[in-house]
Amino acid sequence: MIQKGIATFTLDYGKCPKWLFERMVKLGREIIEVMNIEYGPDEFIKRIADPVWFQSLGTVLAFDWNASGLTTILTAALKEALRRNEKELGIFICGGKGKTSRKTPEQIKGWGSILSLPAAQVDNLVYNSRMAAKVDSALVQDGFQIYHHTFFFSKNGAWAVVQQGMNAENQTARRYHWYSKKITDLVSEPHSGIASQMKSSTLDLTAKKSGKTRETSKELVQGGYASLMKDIKILRKHSSKLSQMISLKCGQRQTTFLNLENKEFHHHPVEREDFSKSKYLEKVLWQVCERRPESYENLLSLEGVGPKTIRALSLTSEVIYGAKPSYEDPARYSFAHGGKDATPYPVDRETYDATINFFNKLIQKTKMPFSEKKKAMAKLERNRN
After folding, report:
1. CA 281, CA 126: separation in Å to the nearest integer?
2. Is residue 247 scored above 50 in pLDDT?
3. What is the pLDDT of residue 249?
4. Which of 37, 190, 335, 378 would suit a FRET pair with 203, their CA atoms being 20 to 30 Å apart?
5. What share of the chain is helix, strand, coil (3-state, %, to 5)?
6. Which candidate, 157, 86, 93, places its Cα nearest to that of 123?
7. Could you tell me the residue ranges of all domains in the chain?
8. Under a CB-based contact definition with an 8 Å cutoff, are residues 273 and 239 in contact?
9. How many helices (H) and strands (E) does the chain have?
10. Closest listed residue to residue 141, CA positions, set 350, 313, 278
């Protein structure tokens, strides 16, 4: 079962040793080939989108389970493992870390050309990749900046996204998973996830609780630029007062202009929101109002619409019209299979054992030398204990 949530890891520096990366590529290739024979390419895409399974795969390939580098190195190793065998296996991986992540659309189109895919299908894959990145940077404002984006898809059209964000202040990384077959709405709780070791103050506009905020934001834009700017000017007029009233840290009783009631709330970047006149923000809002998007997804997809634009519309919706969004961190769990101290819930041994048994079967069926199989299975057993 794929648990909803987001994973947070300590931020790593340095490079993966060549010998380790080569081993990960070799073992990764073996596992992919066995999985493809046993279950087909779509099952691999489904499993990659399961953060528990993804984390376990990284561990099996000999990487530290709680390191941020697991995400970047594992996806790079899998991409290398598939090289020159993509068409045969029906599995394709695009994107990666840093500058490579920005090449994702180009790489998807490249495979579309090689495979002679219909233009509409290729455009849809590119759109989903781009929207996943936009949602996790603009709608989930949790203090983590996306720096890694990998898009997986099969010859049958199933796709998954694995992307990671960095929080420079607390030196942690957070990973976000998407799976096409589980998504009914790109802007409403689209993630599949694992546990988080820590929570952060978050403006989560993907939450179901934020539905009214999304709807109001769309209506504000549809109402036209002049009407929207009247509301923005109200926020600007009261910006200094707002910044004083928005904080709950002092615990003092006061009349609040914006009430953030979440008991877990300690601090959020909206406290420091600058409502001083911004020509760029005004330009973006004017362009968006001119387009009059039919839905919130259409609004988010427009060029130039980013975190600040979305935040301005969200705060206007809340402060002026009472459409309160969710400020709860969408992270749900602290460890992949629960915590030993039963926080936030006891270890889910059934899921844990099922994951380990699945990998044991795959490893047994690979063509690796017995000594290599023994090492991999021993690592799995250590995790079980």
Report:
1. 27
2. no
3. 35
4. 335
5. 55, 15, 35
6. 157
7. 7-200, 209-321
8. yes
9. 15, 8
10. 313
